[in-house]
Design a protein that fits this description.
Distance between the termini: 17 Å
Strand order of the largest sheet: 6-8-7-14-15-11-9-10
Radius of gyration: 21 Å
Structural class: alpha+beta
Number of helices: 15
Shape: globular
CATH architecture: Alpha-Beta Complex
CATH class: Alpha Beta
Number of strands: 15
CATH superfamily: Amidase signature (AS) domain
Length: about 475
């Protein structure tokens, strides 16, 4: 395989070839490091790079195979980890100048699992400051640029991961998602981002161990590759009290399924504006779902109170997680984080209680709606990638956005219900900017979401269109 073929092969193929000794882990790593050397100065996706550690890991992977040792499903695959997740002995900044030189003394649980599955750490991917906002820039490393148009944002907060995937710098990635941070950069960069159900990928360490709002999950260029990563990082762990008591291995099984007669809801009538370039790209693929055998109906659940619920709980999480830092280092924290923390400080007990009552009612309404529909189809983001110098979207169509997150309602409405959702490449705007479609499944049904996403992806082939910077 040529270096270019290696860098854009699927993770599933690379893992198979490495296990069968058709290609070495060293060759795979060398190809990806060369791609990083060529393209990372253009897009700034992997600000912390560890080439010597990566090559040592690749050598160890080859030696393990030579000894006939049993290996994991990700054996020999390069991966850079999101700079919000702790990596032992590796600089982890959270995109904040407060932590510019921070080196954790332990790995997060997801890192433990990725390494146990054979993935080889090459560095860290860029994020917004503390992951706040779906626009990847920070005062430590600067902005990450969209490879389809380097004047545009890559989204966020898993923006560096998405760009590294799109550019062939690595075959798999990890990320996290509260209000869309796996799905939005997936959409903006023509890759796949899966938000699993809370507890599917357990989190540790966490100061909010019972919280269902921020979840970890996989990113990749194909759905099958995302499923492969999920197979390695999903499964119960006693350190996470909300972890789901099902092993992750099933997600590595073939995703083929007959969708004849499967009823899906085409969700147009939700209470947020969507840029017509996004709507048109998604509507153009409605027939693809019909061709797969799905019964596509215009329908949408009652999402009353979703906005209020999410904003209350987001503010509560920000105050709990970042409140002390804001008080100690206010001059080193960006304004949107300060605003979100102060929102949390102003919350009363009855406000939080009422938000939880409303969240319970919302979940039941969506559950009943999805007794008829197995899946919901909707936009990932309400807008296409926007100017990288713009911190956040302030207007969609003719509607003024009240806060820095309002343009992400299409994602965070789903976050607050706890349903699994995936962003899959769907099409492009007339300007050539990627647009993803969001597929939402029933409670805990990641498997069904992956199956429909895989079928759609194979039918369209949109994911094969590479950004201009790699050509």
């Amino acid at each position: 395989m040529s270096r270019n073929e290696i860098c854009f092969a699927t993770a599933t193929e690379l893992a198979h070839r490495i296990r069968n000794k058709e290609i070495s882990a060293r060759e795979v790593m060398e190809a990806h490091l060369a791609q990083i050397e060529r393209l990372n100065p253009v897009v700034n996706a992997i600000p912390t790079l560890l080439p010597e550690m990566a090559m040592d890991g690749a050598a160890a992977a080859d030696e393990a195979l030579a000894r006939g040792e049993a290996v994991g499903p990700l054996h020999g695959l390069p991966i850079a980890h999101k700079d919000l997740v702790d990596t032992k002995g590796i600089r982890t900044t959270y995109g904040s100048p407060i932590f510019a030189d921070h080196v954790p003394d332990q790995d997060a649980l997801i890192i433990e699992r990725l390494r146990a599955a054979g993935a080889i750490t090459i560095g860290k991917t860029n994020v917004p400051e503390f992951g706040a906002g779906s626009q990847t820039y920070n005062p430590v490393f600067g902005p990450t640029l969209n490879p389809y148009d380097t004047t545009k944002t890559c989204g966020g907060s898993s923006g560096g991961a998405a760009v590294a995937l799109a550019c062939g710098m690595m075959p798999i990635a990890d990320g996290s998602d509260m209000g869309g941070s796996l799905r939005n950069p997936g959409s903006f960069n023509n890759v796949v981002g899966l938000r699993p159900s809370p507890g599917r990928v357990p989190s540790y360490p966490s100061g909010l161990a019972w919280s269902p709002f921020s979840v970890s999950g996989p990113m990749a260029r194909t759905v099958a590759d995302a499923a492969l990563v999920l197979s390695a990082i999903a499964g119960p762990d006693p350190r996470s009290p909300i972890s789901i008591e099902q092993p992750g291995g099933r997600f590595a099984l073939p995703l083929d399924r007959d969708f004849a007669g499967t009823r899906i809801a085409w969700c147009h009538d939700l209470d947020y504006p969507v840029d017509p370039r996004v709507s048109n790209a998604i509507d153009a693929q409605r027939g693809t779902f019909s061709d797969l055998g799905c019964l596509v109906e215009d329908a949408a659940p009652d999402m009353t109170d979703a906005d209020e619920i999410f904003k209350v709980w987001r503010a509560w999480c920000f105050e709990a997680g970042r409140g002390e830092l804001v008080h100690q280092h206010r001059d080193k924290v960006k304004e949107t984080v300060i605003w979100n923390v102060e929102m949390g400080e102003r919350l009363s007990g009855p406000q939080v209680a009422q938000a939880e009552v409303k969240r319970s009612a919302l979940y039941q309404r969506v559950r009943v709606f999805m007794e008829r529909y197995e899946f919901m189809i909707m936009p990932v983001s309400q807008v296409p990638p926007f100017d990288v110098t713009q911190p956040y979207v302030t207007r969609v169509n003719d509607v003024e956005m009240e806060t820095y997150i309002d343009w992400m309602k299409s994602c965070y409405y789903i976050s607050i219900t706890g349903h699994p959702a995936i962003s899959v490449p769907c099409g492009f705007t007339p300007e050539g900017l990627p647009v993803g479609v969001q597929i939402v499944g029933r409670h805990h049904d990641e498997w069904g979401v992956l199956q429909l996403a895989h079928a759609f992806e194979q039918a369209t082939g949109v994911w094969k269109r590479r950004p201009d910077v790699v050509k």
